[in-house]
# Entry
Amino acid sequence: MTRKATSRPVIPIQPTAGAIPSAGDADDGVHFVSMYQKQPDIYPRAVKGWFATWRWTFVWLTQLLFYGMPWLLWDGRQALLFDLEAQRFYILGLVLYPQDLIFLAALLVLSALALFFFTAVAGRLWCGYTCPQTVYTEIFMWVERQFEGDRIARMRLDQAPWSAEKVARKGATQLAWVAIGLFTGFSFVGYFTPIRELSQAVLTVTVTPWNAFWILFYGAATYGNAGYLREQMCKYMCPYARFQSALIDKDSLVITYDSARGDPRGSRSRKQSAAAQGLGDCIDCTLCVQVCPTGIDIRDGLQNECIGCAACIDVCNDVMAKMNYPKGLIRYSTENGVVNGWSKLQMFKRALRPRVLIYGGLLSAASVAFAASVALRSPFQVDVVKDRGALARVVEDGAIENVYRLQIMNRTEQPQTYRIDAQGIPGLEVQTEVVRTPPAGISSVVVSLRLPYSAAQGLLGQSAPVQFEVNQLDGTRAAAAVQREKSTFFVPR
# Structure
């Protein structure tokens, strides 16, 4: 049995654009298509409105926090400092050590749960208002508008031949971007190196190679991401755009276009109603596309490129007001709400669905557990290491001695004094004095435990459990002023 051959179109990938097919290609039905296409430049238009005001509010809040926090003092030192060289992390009144990495893991879990919760409720709120990529892109676009003008002016400037004016405008934009990027890199490094010392080093050109590298690296990343990559980061590099579809459903608040009300689209005369002209409320002005920072058309439905900035809502509401149409042609709504014509109250009731309740419950429980663990955190930590060189030895009067090394980590910023006791075997004696530890310091002390000859006879050849008890003598929190650590006491035959 023979199978009849079928002709299928073949689309080979060409390494260069604009390849010219041979004359015989048309007869073979083979079409050459270039798979390499330059992405069109996006020139977002400036927009004003309620959501734009909120977006700029978060720009100011996040940047005042980021740029200002390194300069804030707390008890005479930098309030937020991650001193990698000294292995001390100062967060307001907290002093953390590498051993406290569990708190960082808990913060990451809380951040993930918060992202899941807010995405299930209202889509990409994080992306639209507080994501660093969105925030710095907004700042860089504002700078660009100051020197090069709004959308049409920038398009004309880019298409115009090079001239003194174009060089001046473009150069001023680039200088401002570089300055913002370098200051951002400087502020970032200021979280790891005391920023006052870093500023003096910058002014005197004595910055260490590593600090200089990270200032330039973070500054270049800010400059490149916010100045050039922009929407490419959100569309192709950010993983959140890919898995957000697994977090939202038909009852999540997202930016939607009411096609039942807006279509058919088209220009119209104001002398007649839209219905009389056979048109919907959308006048097809495309302003919603022009203000979109990722260049999508929200009228085509929700897309993973949409970052939820709501710029299209602001500009569409402005157009509706000028046309004397009701606002909300583009609005925050749910898919079910648009299809069924639900009111805001009906949509908000659907927000309390099982998925949201589960995320909210997990987030609340994790937040309470994290806050409690930080509040009840002990002001010091004790580690016990038994001397491996000699498990036990016989000293004067036949007493048995075991040697240990205790490492006491002071988690406060005041000098502390500790008393070491041991229990577990009747007659056990501690051969040590009180231990003093500097602020946020670590003291290592050798501790000897002795067991009298008479008490050791019943334990020959055995390892008995013992427990060290370290008391903070001048602590202000009695509930956390005692630490207990287990070990063993070996009695030779």
